[in-house]
Amino acid sequence: MRTLETLSGGEWVTTGEWIDVHDPADLRAPVARVPALSAADVTRAYDHAERGFTTWRRTSPFERARIMTDAARLLRERVARIAEDLAGEMGKTRAEATGETVKAADFLEYYAGVARQGYGTLVHDARPDTRTSHQREPLGIVLAVTPWNDPLITPARKLAPCLAAGNAALLKPATDTPQAALHLARALHDAGLPPGVLNVVTGRGAQISEALLSDPRLVALTFTGSNEVGEDLRARLAGRNVRFQGELGGKNATVVLADADLTAAARAVAAAGFAQAGQRCTATSRVVVERPVYEEFTRLLLAETAALRIGPGLAEGTTMGPLVSARQRDGVLRAVERAVEQGATVLAGGDRPADEALGHGCYVDPTVLGDVSDDVDIWHEEVFGPVLALRAVDSFEEAVRVVNDSDFGLAAAVFTRDLGAAHRFAEEAECGQIAVNTTTSGWDVHHPFGGFRDSGSPFKEQGEEALRFYTRVKTVAVHFGA
Question: What mean pLDDT is predicted for residues 283-310?
């Protein structure tokens, strides 16, 4: 078992208490341990961040860009080791973990380019001999709380624009998957990030959340995770001048119209529903199919599902790994069991694999449910596992109504050869991310990302839109006349 240090004040530190990290493919022994920081350690991290911000906000944007570019290079050079650790703590396949590492480097490179650009605009002024502009400047100390399902991409998605804009940060990674975040921190540290600009707080939420949230130096909190935790964080910040960005749950639907390429649709739905064992906020979990092609599409989807190979993420040939923990596995199985009790039919999966070699892991068979109606909880509630629920509809209008009948509004897709239907769907589906003839997942670093309704807050992530959260606007008028 490896013992890891965490980054605080530019130094790699440990404590007397530890958090064990387990491989969800085999829970019998921990694979690593990380420091369990205390409330006092959190306060010290804020002290470091305060000093780091003073330095970093005055650091040339070109120097910021250089450091972030060098960190991206280091991630790419270390991709094999990072991917192994990521897969070993989260359960992703080697290909998924490798792709996540590369995409994290993409985020750093993209925002390194953005850092080189000016954040401001020259505006007209009615006063003579006066030149007025508005510019964006950093906020201060940002707290990033990140989830276990994308433990490298999500910190990179948040830290890259945060650091490019000149802020300092505390990063609180998920206790299930802290190794990936520490790899990102080490790349930034080795690239020359000044001390205190980034501090990684590994610890148990119950022990350090008050210290993280109550410090008066906190100016912004960016969070990705469950609605329950997100709403609690929002409530705890109420009444304070602290920005909140939340990327929360989703119940994403893919619509398959009667004129669609059914083979392509089935392949895309399987990829969107079962990649990362369904543990993506943008994973497809509801499938809405026009009735004339429902049976044929279902046949094709079940064939795609049967072709998946379940096993440890690092094993050769695995196409779907385990869920992140026994807790997550058991929650998914309970949701499927309840759906069956409420009238759904199991068309594939629905249980743990029968293979004894997988008995010590957190596996769930890729599951397809039919006969799912409004009355079945799984049609509305986020499961975050490899479960697809199918439903037939009689028209495009009914399909859109079913898609929008949700508390969430993150992502939706439609498969059709009709350009008019595609544009109508993009206009009428009440989601922040709309895909046509492709998967609900897979948005690139420069694509603004975020959902509507209970799926998130008004602040988007990714692209230049992210800078709206990490900066404030200052207007400056200069009179140069006599």
Answer: 98
